[in-house]
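note to self: the first set is below, dont mix up w the second
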Amino acid sequence: MPRRSILLFAAACAVIAAALIVTTLVLVSRPSGAPRAGEVITSGQADVGGPFQLVDHDGRPVDQSMLEGKWSLVFFGFTYCPDFCPTTLAALDATKQRLGDKAKDLQIVFISIDPERDTPQALKDYLSSDGFPEGVIGLTGTPAQVKAAADAYKAYYQKVGEGEGYTMNHSLTVYLMGPDGKFRTAVAEELGPDRSAEVIERAMARG
């Protein structure tokens, strides 16, 4: 092997070895209170959330001030969702049970990304289904209002198909907002009720 190739190969090996050492040190030295896989911890200053104008499942106009004074789990979905939305809502119900008394300071806000079908009454009927958390606040609005809210939360959605049988693709993140209405952390769908409760409890402890 030419001397230049040998030197380049040796340098590449050194870089890979250094990366492995750094990775090992990070994994081994992670403090017990540090975020686990699937968790995102912030200081509340992330560019997530903001002003919105929607209506709740009783047809009353609401804005971002509804998040103030309580911890909130904000989730974007739609009532015709065949799997992820009902699964997530059921998981949030289990999470609230794990939180015990702390759950009284927590509200769940379900924002529809399908205003064409999700009227306030449709949301109200859907969210009263067995297995869903009690007291979930359903929000909808005009297409422009829904888009503005989704944009504020960096939530993705897209209509797929035409006619009555269309569906909606959308992101699955649940956003934990603090009593000041600011973003605290994202609760990943795959964490499960136990881990999700831990994430929320730690955020509440930090304030």
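second set (the one i keep forgetting abt)
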Amino acid sequence: MPRLAPTQSTIKKLFAYTGNQCAMPNCTESLVDPSGTMLGKIAHIHAAEPGGARYLDSMTDEGRRAEANLFIICGKHHDIIDDKKNEADWSPDKLRAIKKAHEDRFKKAERQLIEQFVDATQINQPVYPKTLKAYGEGLDPEDVERELKEITDFLNSLKEVPLNERQFAIRLAERMNRLNVDELDVHDTVAAFTIGPTKFKRLMGILEHHGMGHISERAGYNQYDVVLRDEWLKIYAYCKEQQIPPEDVFLDLNFGLLDESDGA
């Protein structure tokens, strides 16, 4: 069977995060010259065909042409990392780290821009989990099935939440995780994030509207706590354990990372 070429949508996504610059550290080569001539090349972390550098027999053809296995570099570096005699110098983990560091620079800028001008909730289409192989490790099959349904329901709601409120919820989950609590005092939270009560109420109002969290009154105390939906805390804790940026899940909606990490 001939190798599968990357889809046009994959190629567009790869180029969107290049900044027209080779991904290799300290390389300033452009990927497209002013006349529109393509200078860059699509590189494979794991080779597309047997005999290629870092070929992984267990990977599917779809996996080989998937965005996670590809990045764009200049022609010179493409030839260097694809040369079998250099394979020991360019491990899959090293190439994944280079890809991530380069693309993250432009993903961050994109996140800031898209929120200002368009409905940012529609930019990233969600990647739904299928197996929860990593997230549900050790669970009984029936528990995995239950978790899969709950996380799918969570994702269906999350994808409609504006990016700014998602980012705020990530910071709330981060603070809860660090303090080892599942609720935060409202006054403490407003002070910690140095935001006024009006902005705080607006942020929490949008999260509550989408079923992502709410403010709860402590019985008999006339005090209030911030509460997030359970999935925020559980998935955030998983991301921290697996060293996955929570933004990759909650902002980019790549819940496929709960099946297994890119390095699995």
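remember for set 2: The first helix runs from residue 8 to 16.
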